[in-house]
């Protein structure tokens, strides 16, 4: 069976993870990984800590710390937040701990320079006289030359297009706030135009959303740019080219090779998992603001270095998730920090809401009131109410004297019960598509599960009238069996999104082992042992939802 490698963009350790981060690639990649693994596909999930970002050093400069201290402190907090929200990486890459990461990055950089893909150019670069510092990427802000919105150097988060720092309008230093002047600076540039045919063929083959595809078209229109891949700086990997050894490798070039180095490390731990070089399928999860790096820069670097590299089969990107209408921002401290939220809110509740509200094609906005209303007054209220009613029906079906013990439905299914079983099977087939890279939509999966609960509750309400009646009680029991099978389907379909809740329900149904290890079709004959079904699923209880102010 084909191996699948799943990647999520390594976050910058200049602050803690917030809900905006979780709503993007990390939760989405984990949902996809869990579904692939449960389906029997060999899958590995990796990310890393993007230590060498200029934003890490800029945070250190503003706070009076070293870049190493900032990277270590926030890197540890990021990994803890992942663990506490059940994001299950098979490997987390650490650039400063991995000798292969630095070695491969310099090897690729030197090879591309030797072949003429990387060339020296003398061009203007913003400079802050007050700070006596070259202002690039995190150190400069101005108006994007493409869309006019506020942007830092090298790439615009809003339109997604790269810039050369000097073409920002009205550049200012982000440390002291003073205007920057332009000074000539010799740096090394990667030429992308020689990779045009390779990239255009790749774009035709890779699965990606319309917004990202349009971005690739815009970048390629009129000629692919040359991108600065070295900066005059003190933080990061040194450039392995004579005359430029005092400069540092552009961190996004480093990330391209970092993916390859991490896959090599993962291959040592799990042979057969390096899909970049060993075939298989790579699926990458990232935010649209990182789209040009993943869809243009990374494949250009990889293919220029090794034409035999297998590029990703699919990109799953997301738009910005906002907080009270404004963009989540680590640097501006406009955020709900994930570790803070987890002190009050169960991880599965966050996972549920963020999958429902995921900004897949358009931006969405988080508020505590919407979170509380969705779970306490809508989704969980409906699910918990059905499970409570089903528990009572289950007890009535099991306890009636003279009725079968419920190991299997007593005779032919009533048409309505048979119909619910068919809808359960169809729901899981459709959920399988919703969790695929081609159609990835956790929201649609939850909508399908919610409709299944509504259908099962409606059947239960109809069959309540048959309970205890001679000649009709057997039909009531058959309906309960069908509802229990729907509950098993709910646990199975819910598992990738809310694994703890799914396991609670699976165990409450009396089913053996872990829900992640079983196919729903193995659980269609759920035991009729009397139980307080809802009480055994505390995370389904709307009362467990913490209500917080706006």
Q: Can you describe this structure?
A:
- The protein is of the alpha/beta class.
- The chain folds into 2 domains: 4-365, HUPs (Rossmann fold, 3-Layer(aba) Sandwich); 367-544, Orthogonal Bundle (Isoleucyl-tRNA Synthetase, Domain 1), CATH 1.10.730.10.
- 43% of the residues lie in helices and 14% in strands.
- The chain has 15 helices and 17 strands.
- Strand 6 (140-143) and strand 7 (150-152) form a beta hairpin.
- Helix 12 (415-434) runs parallel beside helix 14 (473-494) and helix 14 runs antiparallel to helix 15 (499-508).
- The longest helix has 32 residues, at 368-399.
- It is elongated and about 95 Å long.
- The two termini are 48 Å apart.
Question: What's this model, at a glance?
Answer:
The protein has 550 residues and is an alpha/beta fold. It is 43% helix and 14% strand.
| Largest beta-sheet characterization | 5 strands, parallel
Strand content: 5-15%
CATH class of the largest domain: Alpha Beta
For the terminal residues, how far apart are their CA atoms?
48 Å
What structural class is derived from the secondary structure elements? alpha/beta
Q: Briefly note the CATH topology name of the largest domain.
A: Rossmann fold
